[in-house]
Amino acid sequence: MKTVLIANRGEIAVRVIRTCKKIGLRSVAVYSESDEGSMHTRLADESVCIGPRAPEKSYLNIDGIIAAAKAFNADLIHPGFGFLSENAAFRQACDEEGIRFIGPSAESMILMGDKQRARELVAENGFPVVPGSDGCVDSLEDAVAVSKRTGYPLMIKAASGGGGRGIRIVKNEQELLNSFPIACREAEVSFGDRRVYLESYLPNARHIEVQVLADEYGNAIHLGTRECTLQRKNQKIIEEAPASNVDPAVIAAIQDTAVGIVRKLGYFNAGTIEFLLSEDGKFYFMEMNTRIQVEHPVTECIYGVDLIKAQIHVALSHKLSIKQKDIVPKGHAIECRINAEDPARNFMPSPGIITKMVLPGGNGVRVDTGFCEGDEIPPYYDSMIMKIICMGDDRLEAIRAAGCALEELKIEGVSTSAAFSKAILKDDDFIKGRIHTKWIEQVFIDRFMRSVQ
């Protein structure tokens, strides 16, 4: 029996452990001192403490995780998302120890992790990118020169950013002059790389992404689109599959572009290619995430594919068992992220002990969580408690199912974002698809705050 060490925590660790059990693999959980006894450690076949609560001393400690893998004779490591999931040095450390990393090559991670270099590569191969600077911008003078060519508004983006972080929007030259040096400093502090580049900011754009899957033998497929437009401060709140209210020809072009990028890269394993869809129906490459995404369950629901299982098979050098012609969507799925935070108090974090938890159920309802009643939500990590994923024969049915699931959900002891998501699901703009990436911040939050006052 092969052994998989899961280099993560919370719901994604539980998600990976469950697939390991399903396909007959031994699982090893790692945990920090503050996560001792947590759900993922209880479900795994083995568990080991890798350090104190601070992420840099535990979940970001490459040497500690590799040592744990060797101690338990792990054949593979699954990085989950966040933490070390897109860290090429971690992948290289696995390679040096003969441990299979469940993800792409270090070269792909390095290339796509440099957002500006990725943008250049995509453009060089004839794929559409958002207008902006040709390469990174080294000085304020160069930034102003780019703005003269592209106009405003603009985004200043960290070359090594990702996950919605490292982005500033400027609407005029004065804002550019003020924000550029700040953005460079923030990039250096957050990512250890002060390089930034500029892109045109597309108002009222939608965020459409494509799930891709490829093996080491050149076989590559897409598993349709996801709508990830509903965001607050560039962090996704509700996701759907497939993207709706988009011309089928545009969807087909987006999907073909995603697979084309994968093939040009020689990429293998699971990945997600993100696009912006402008009001005029044009789409542009934004970035590629070289890992499994938080929102992968909506894709699994409509295509009937276990993406974690597929990742493991590719890491074991198996060929893809599914072909593009076999990928046929069925119905519509919606995912609501439930975080330990209080939307009515400016999304203030709400760590603490879950004193009561009643989960929704029924046909077409899936709950992915790393916590149960009596568990503690620590203040040191991401605040996500769970994801509630609901399916329907069509989008409206999925929306209704998600609303019913959120009504059934009961969590006490900590505040959650459930009421915020429930209000979105009832909003007429959302139901009719009149949304864009800044809709929550510019339109919906005011509506929500008025409703709770």
What is the CATH homology-level superfamily of the largest domain? Answer: ATP-grasp fold, B domain
Number of β-strand runs: 22
Rough shape? globular
Number of helices: 15
Distance between the termini: 57 Å
Tell me the radius of gyration.
21 Å
Summarize the structure.
The protein has 15 helices and 22 strands. Helix content is 36%, strand content 27%.
List keywords for this structure.
eight-stranded antiparallel sheet, single chain, Rossmann fold, D-amino Acid Aminotransferase, Chain A, domain 1, 15 helices, alpha+beta, 453 residues
Explain what you see:
This protein folds into 3 domains: 3-102, Rossmann fold, CATH 3.40.50.20; 131-200, ATP-grasp fold, A domain (Dna Ligase, domain 1), CATH 3.30.1490.20; 206-452, D-amino Acid Aminotransferase, Chain A, domain 1 (2-Layer Sandwich), CATH 3.30.470.20. The protein is built from 15 helices and 22 strands. It has helices spanning 10-22, 39-43, 62-71, 88-96, 106-113, 115-124, 140-150, 173-191, 248-265, 296-303, 307-315, 395-408, 418-426, 428-431, 439-452; strands at 3-6, 26-32, 46-51, 76-78, 100-101, 154-162, 165-170, 196-200, 206-214, 220-232, 235-241, 269-277, 283-289, 332-339, 341-342, 348-349, 352-353, 356-358, 365-369, 376-377, 384-392, 410-412. It has an 8-stranded antiparallel sheet with strand order 13-12-9-10-11-14-21-19, sandwiched between helices. Strands 3-2-1-4-5 form a 5-stranded parallel sheet. α2 (39-43) links the parallel β2 and β3 (46-51). α4 runs antiparallel to α5 (106-113) and α7 crosses α8 (173-191).
